[in-house]
Amino acid sequence: MVDLAGPLLLSILLGSLYTLMALGLTMTYAITRVPNFAHAEYVTVGGYVAAVLALGLSGLLAASGLAGVAVIVLASVLAFAAAAAVAVGGDELVFKPLTRRGATSLHLLVASIGVGLVIRYILSIIVASYDLLVVRSPIDKEILVTVGGAPFTNLHAWVLPTTFGVVIGLHVLFTRTRLGKAMRAMASNFDLARIAGIRTVRVRRWTWLLAGGLAGLGGAFWVINVPVVPETGWVILLFLFAASILGGFTSFWGTVAGGFIVGFAEIMGMSLLNQLFGVSLSYRPMIALAIIVLVFLLRPQGITGLTMPDFRALARRLHARLRPAGRGT
Amino acid sequence: MPVDLTFLLPLVATTFGIFLILAVSFNLEYGFGGQPNLGKVFFYSIGAYVAGALTAHALWALAGSPADIPFLEDAGGVVRFAVARANPGAMLGLFVASLVVAALAGAAFGWLASYPALRLRGDFLAIVLIAVGEVTRVFVFNYEPIAGGVFGLSGVPNPFAWLPPRVSDAVYAVVVLAIAFGVYIYASRLTRSPYGRLLKSLRDDELASKVYGKRTPRVKAGVLMIASDMSAVAGALYVFYVQTVYAGDFIPLLSFIAIAMVIVGGVANFRGVLLGAAFMTLLDLVTRPVFPTFFDLFWRPPFDMNYVRYLVVGLIIIVVLMFRPKGLIPEQPVETAALQVARRWGKPSTAPKPTANAPRRG
Amino acid sequence: MAMEEPKPRKWSTALIILVAIAIVLAGALGWALYALYAAPAAPQQINYPIGLAIATTGPTYQVDGPIRRDAALLAIEQMNAQLAAAGSPVRFQPIHEDTTGTADGAREALQLLAAAGVKVVVGPLSTGEVSAIRDFVTQNKIVSISPSSTGIAAAIPNDYVFRAPPTDIPQSKALAQLVDTLGYTEVAIIARNDDYGKGFADLFESTFETEYGGQVTRIAYDPTVQDLAAEVTQLAADVQGLGPGADTAVLMVAFEGDGLEILDEARLSTVLRGVRWFGSESTRRSAFLNETKIPDIVQFLLDTQFTGFFATPSLNPVSVAFEAAYVAKYPGRNPKASPYSYYSYDSAWMAMQAVLLAGKYDGEAIAKMLPVFAATYLGASGHKAMDANGDAISADYTAWRVARDASNKPYYEEFARWIFATEDIEFFA
Predict the structure, then answer these.
(1) How remote is the C-alpha of B77 from its chain's centroid?
(2) Class in CATH terms, C169-310+396-427
(3) Do B4 and C102 touch (CB under 8 A)?
(4) Contact, C64 vs C258, CB < 8 A?
(5) CB–CB of A292 and B131 under 8 A?
(6) ipTM for the complex?
(7) Is the per-residue pLDDT at A290 higher than 70?
């Protein structure tokens, strides 16, 4: 008996969180050409800020439901701000100077590894000295309603609309606003964008601000789910890359789809493997990572640009393969 | 200074030797070949699993495969140690065989890795290789038959276990250093040749090299194979030192340490690699809580020194990339043997141009 | 590959040299300063180092490790105070090295401690680490006393590894017996996938199935994954598959972080709240009973009558004194947060006593005297007499379950005892 209601809801939640966190990664890569290994640390920073704030205001939380909502909103906003600050700081100090000196994306990748290490271990030293290595948010998960036997929690109620709002908001940003169009211009051709008069430095700052902030926001929600530790970000970094990569690393909607695909693969995929084939759940981290490897080997541009003719061509090729007598396309 | 050097020196020497091999291999791939293998720990772990499993199973067979003693538990390890101590010849033979098999396995996986390496750009390749490393780690950690799974495979004895304890550590350290320097000299020689120039030309401008008729895919695959080979050997040496195979040891941080070593010392520069490896070994030693006690200072820092070590690694990467991207010792033009001969023949006042040789088919 | 150097600065080389000199000077200054603060040895003082190979970073031990290390430090400090009061020239010097909980880390830590001249070590903490260093310490005659390794994989006679807690064998047997005695025939296990979790679950499963004819399902989860909602959902499915009647129970084998996460997810499931829950010894934690922080989890523990065993008899005068001393020395902290801190305290104490009994700082002599001392020692974690493998002989186990006391606070109520000698379970009135 395959029970899928629970895994389904969990996949939607995890997918939303991954999408929220991976969008920033795609943005910084597409617009500023930095494959940012430090991205996940913004999640950790956001998580800590949100958790510590909520702890500080835990009296208010106990007071009333509306106060609880206010605390969550405040914590999220502050997490956004803190992570955005760290992101912009990292860019101003490291990535922008390196880009100016002609660093390739490879150099920037290596530099971002350094930045990630620095953020994570400074954070570790600080929280360890305040005895805050593991911080549990006082905001509890509660079941709001049961759907098909599976719990729909307040976390769902916060994350799903926020992700939806963010996705729509970003879409509007990219298509309707000057800033967004400037970002797209920079992503598509940096030099032309500069020639066209776009203030690339300002756009760059906004990009990093949004990217870091979104990751921090994801962290603020993540901490309602699980206690935050310094490794929180690092553990999910590769999954965030998987989500971005599925989107070909440069596509906005591709990343959105990618986030959900990774979330579903990790939970639904793992549950199916477990229930149908008895594969132990401890293989869970492998699933998302295996996706990266497979996607890269088979179709490095991810799922972007897949059109109906592509599917038909694929079907034809499979058909030809299955018929060894005939010549393949 | 209450330091027992018979414990400290082998530790430092073995660590340095293994770091050196890793740095040399990364330098070959990245410095000369232009392919950053951020999944270095994957090839390193392959060598470790292969060497460890081979040795453990062979020793077990030598012991007559006692059915009442569990293979994976410490009791099994005790049996393996006993067999190794009783059969020095067999143990040494197994050591050499393990190194050879590890090298072969490394080369094989390097060849396999060249498939994505040829189709992907640098930063994408880096991510894929890290993912492959993590997939392998999780897989081996969960799937017991390979390397003991969550328990790890203890009882992979030091090849000189049949010598008295400190002597065996010291002799092994010497062997590791010897192999490390052998690898170092090999790599230096390899790159101080037309082949080295070929690699650099590929790295700097692949299109131009192709125009000159160099078979770039072959060459790139070749570099990856040689470097993976070396990493696997390093992994095998590591396993014989720790005497346990444990999948959890092989984390991406190790790859980043290799990067830091090469970046600090100097890309495409083997003397720089020596410097980088020495620096990292020193850093590892100095950021240990025990270190002050060597100087009779019993001061405990208010925070954990482990955090400082990785913080320093991160800072090093950033600072060096920002201020000395070519490393502390900058890259030199390729010095082939022919160049040295030409210098001897040529007039002392005029220095021959580095591109004295006409490009031949690679 | 051709990245430009920053604009040429003539003084960059000079800058590097200056920085290097600055570092050397700073180091020298620091060294001089610390030399002023380093305790100068009294003329006839004999310093014996006690190594502490205790992991204090890394996902598994970043919270527990420091507590256990601090407990050992407390023991050493107390001993030194008593020696000073007695006018003895002997002092013990703690030297801590962090193993990060990995085999590699353990090996390096031991080697570094050996380089510092240490011959007796408290630690390492986990069974995997103990396996990794066994041969090294045995060959080099360094005594290792682990305060928390309990896997049967490491029970070996005639080596230099000693363990303060008993192995998991009697505990898992006792737990299987208790589960059966209380009338459960089906158990859904959720265990962390590492040497401890897998070892314990394997032992429980084999005993429960072969001796009591029960049925067991198992979920193993990767300990590095923080979000265990999917695993707990599967657990609920397992429970339903086993038939969520009165004869189904759940067994949780987890440490603190993952345990809290599992409980946090499980409390949302009516299915899981409706069955009895059992836990390994490692789940008996004061953090789980913090009603101000996690009221619903506490309620869940009460609803499921969360039950387990513990080897430590409580209200033992040594453990009470230890708790008081710990709280006095480290205000705001509580040794109850890490149950194995009691064992850590005892391990350090036994190490020092063995050295004193041996009369010399020699590994072989210490190894001989350690079981001699342990045979008659009642410590904060109970009787420490050792078996032939150098592991604490199991004593009686106490069964606890979560309940409310007279003042309505949640606590671990002790309601039965498993008697080691007869393997009987005796329920308290």
Answers:
(1) 26
(2) alpha beta
(3) no
(4) no
(5) yes
(6) 0.86
(7) yes
Q: How far is A265 from chain B (nearest CA, A)?
A: 15
Q: Find all residues with CB under 8 Å of B144, minimum gap 6, and list them.
A: B72, B150, B151
> A242 and B131 in contact by Cβ < 8 A?
yes
Specify the 3-state DSSP secondary structure of C102: coil
Number of A to B CB contacts under 8 A, please give it.
124
Amino acid at site C215: Q
| Closest CA relative to residue B289, chosen from B277, B298, B276, B280 | B298
Q: Would you state the structure tokens that stand for residue B18, as one six-digit string?
A: 């293994």
Model confidence band, residue B291 (pLDDT cutoffs 50, 70, 90):
confident
Specify the range with the lowest mean pLDDT, choosing from A169-183, C285-299, C357-371.
C285-299
Does C169-310+396-427 match C46-166+315-383 at the fold level? yes
pLDDT digit string (tens) for A38-57?
Answer: 999 999 999 999 999 988 88
Residue A26 belongs to some domain of the structure: yes
How does residue B20 score in pLDDT terms, banded at 50, 70 and 90?
very high
Peptide bond into B289 cis (omega under 30): no
Structural domain of B94: 5-251
Cα distances (angstroms) measured from residue C414 to each of C266, C405, C426: 24, 11, 11
The kind and range of the H/E element at A26 are helix A5-32
Q: Is residue A297 part of a domain?
A: no
Cβ pair A271:C264 closer than 8 A: no
Which chain C residue has its CA at the smallest distance from B285's CA? C112
Give the architecture-level CATH label for domain C46-166+315-383. 3-Layer(aba) Sandwich (3.40)
Neighbour count for residue B277 (Cβ, 10 Å): 27
Three-state SS at C146: strand
Cβ neighbours of B276 in A, within 8 Å: none
What is the count of structural domains for chain B?
1
How many domains does one find in chain A?
1
Mean pLDDT value of segment C84-112: 92
Q: Is residue A204 part of a domain?
A: yes
Kindly state the tokens that stand for C8.
Answer: 């040429």
Is B204 in the A-facing interface, judged by CB distances under 8 Å? no
pLDDT, tens digit, for every residue of A256-272?
Answer: 999 999 999 899 888 88
**Which residue segment(s) compose the domain that A209 sits in?**
5-233
pLDDT tens digits for B314-334? 998 898 888 877 766 667 777
pLDDT interval class at A328 (50, 70, 90): very low
At B116 the three-state DSSP class reads helix
